[in-house]
Write a structure and sequence with these properties.
There is one protein chain. The protein is α/β, with parallel strands linked by helices. The protein has two domains: 184 residues, 2-enoyl-CoA Hydratase, Chain A, domain 1; 49 residues, Lyase 2-enoyl-coa Hydratase, Chain  A, domain 2 (Orthogonal Bundle), CATH 1.10.12. The chain is 49% helix and 14% strand. The protein has a five-stranded parallel sheet, sandwiched between helices. The chain has a four-stranded mixed sheet with strand order 3-5-7-8. Helix 1 links the parallel strand 1 and strand 2. Helix 2 packs parallel to helix 3, helix 4 runs antiparallel to helix 5 and helix 8 runs antiparallel to helix 9. Pfam families: ECH_1 (PF00378). One of its GO terms (cellular component) is mitochondrion. This is Enoyl-CoA hydratase domain-containing protein 3, mitochondrial. One of its GO terms (molecular function) is hydro-lyase activity.
Length: 244
């Protein structure tokens, strides 16, 4: 499924309404057998500029501000809780919560012209919520330099530090994203869902706990129909026939 941020006039800002729409789109028909991968892209030269600052301009509207940041956190964590991989297809500038969105996706493919920044410090609103995703994707000192200075990372720097998975020429962005999507679609949906959920569970645990938990998951994986089908197909040198 393709989700396209389509308000280029406002630099695809994550207004409250945009965040609500994004949440609905991510959850739409999520249990469908046909849904295998979600790609998030955007119209215009800016992938996403972050929160709509006009919504945050009044210091008195605490309830509205809380609502904005709460649903933003919901969306970012939802991406990692979904049973299918989510790919960010970035062609342009991703700043603040837009950079957070890229960091929250499972995979990110960027064009060479893309840039990534957390410039909130420059306008007196430190990017504390984007820092959650950034600090879990980048080395600490790289994340903190971005947060303290607001200076952007180039696409190649983002690749080098692990914020994105691949960088390609702009005219190859669609092709590369589809190549990854098609490869994902060749695997069992149930096995991918198990693997994704397990990955995010183990990444926050200490080494011994992580191995104990994932060893049990692999035992459980072997009891699944697709787990045995994949092994049998490999032994028999044939393509597996997945249940989904």
């Amino acid at each position: 499924r393709n989700i396209i941020l389509s308000n280029p006039r406002k630099r695809n800002a994550l207004s409250l309404s945009m965040l609500q729409s994004l949440k609905e789109d991510l959850l739409h028909d999520v249990k469908s057998k046909e849904l295998r991968v979600i790609v998030i892209s955007a119209e215009g030269p800016v992938f996403c500029s972050g929160h709509d600052l006009k919504e945050l301009a009044s210091e008195d509207d605490v309830k509205h501000h809380s609502q904005v940041f709460e649903i933003c956190a919901e969306v970012m964590t939802l991406i990692q809780k979904l049973p299918v991989p989510v790919i960010a297809k970035v062609n342009g500038l991703a700043t603040a919560a837009g950079c957070q969105l890229v960091a929250s996706c499972d995979i990110a493919v960027a064009s060479e012209k893309s840039q990534f920044a957390t410039p909130g410090v420059n306008i007196g609103l430190f990017c504390s919520t984007p820092a959650v995703a950034l600090g879990r994707s980048l080395p600490r000192k790289v994340a903190l330099e971005m947060l303290f200075t607001g200076e952007p990372l180039s696409a190649q720097e983002a690749l080098m530090h692990g914020l994105v998975s691949k960088v390609v020429p702009e005219d190859k962005l669609e092709e590369e994203t589809m190549k990854i999507s098609h490869k994902i679609c060749e695997s069992s949906k149930s096995i991918l869902a198990l693997g994704k959920a397990t990955f995010y569970r183990q990444i926050t645990q200490d080494l011994d706990t992580a191995y104990k938990m994932t060893a049990q998951v692999m035992v459980d994986n072997l009891t699944l129909r697709d787990g045995q089908e994949g092994i049998e197909a490999f032994i028999q040198k044939r393509k597996p026939v997945w249940s989904h």
